[in-house]
Please model this.
Amino acid sequence: MVVGVNGVGKTTTIAKLANKFKLADKKVVLGAADTFRAAAINQLNVWADRAGVPIVSHEMGSDPASVAYETVDYAKKNDIDVVIIDTAGRLHNKTNLMNELSKIKRVMGKIIPDSPHEVLLILDGSTGQNAFEQAKQFTSSTEVSALAITKLDGTAKGGVVIGISDQFKIPVKYIGVGEGIDDIQLFDREAFVETLFSKL
Ligand SMILES: Nc1nc2c(ncn2[C@@H]2O[C@H](COP(=O)(O)OP(=O)(O)OP(=O)(O)O)[C@@H](O)[C@H]2O)c(=O)[nH]1
Ligand SMILES: [Mg+2]
Model:
């Protein structure tokens, strides 16, 4: 399950992960549980096509939790290895969003107990201190198990994530380094710290 505020790179990161798992010979399915915007569903559909993986989607405005439920159900019936659920980054208000995320998480567990096995919080590396506030919000309503920092291909170095990872005790797993499907890397602490202190 992939969470984060709007525009941080959730959908793009999902596409990258889908591609990565597919190349590792895993069977992948995507769930378009960001039903808040029609464009979000289309965007995920395009990426699913590009990565060559199936997708479960309903029309805009439909219940995101039911999309998630159906996706996990599809995965179970079709022997899928990896389910990746896209979620909305914004709703009419923050409380709605957080309640919705809890609900999405809960319904998945009805089909596969203990799922989702990972809740990945996406943070935009160029955000600065506001990323702390985001981490606080999301960790209070869902159990975030890992972080991904996007947009590290620009001038941003994403140093804020060190404090976030430390304070919330959540490991950083991936970094995003571009808009393309291959532009994802496993987080490498030493390389990250080297970059932080390197001269441009
Ligand atoms: N340069 C760069 N751009 C990125 C990266 N990841 C995502 N983007 C861009 O950031 C923009 C937003 O990405 P999305 O994946 O749509 O973000 P989102 O979190 O799904 O946004 P919402 O669906 O609106 O909540 C897009 O233009 C992406 O191409 C990255 O690692 N580097
Ligand atoms: Mg999105």
